[in-house]
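Chain A, query sequence.
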Amino acid sequence: MEIFDTEGDGSQDEATLWSLSNEFLEAAIVLKDAPKTKVSFSVATYYLVGHSAELSLKSYLFKQGLAVNDLKMIGHNLSNLIDKAMNYGLSDFGEIRALSVIYKNKGLEYLRRIKQSLPPIEHLINEVKKLQSQVFNNIVSF
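Chain A, predicted structure.
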């Protein structure tokens, strides 16, 4: 399988980050809507939604002039990414902030036996869709 039809220069930009964000969100929606089985996909679904939010926020910040290395320094802290994006005019996102507590520490990748609260997945998905829409409107020139 090939992702791009040309060699390219290996760079990243706001469009590649946003596009990948969209793929992660669509994958989360497919998992959420999958018929229930003995295996629960809830943790994977939350991870995919969180990663989608992270990539959308980084796409927006890249468009505002932050370098990829600067974005890597912020890491996976969704709240810090939102704070930084709000400095450039993006809205606040409370459900994504709520997910940040577990997401930034990779708690969805390496589960621990501890009670944790997450926002309802539907609310989170809807908020990430709003985020993606705002980001798209800021990174695309018509």
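The chain has one domain: 14-33+40-139. Helices lie at 14-33, 42-63, 68-74, 78-86, 94-103, 121-139.
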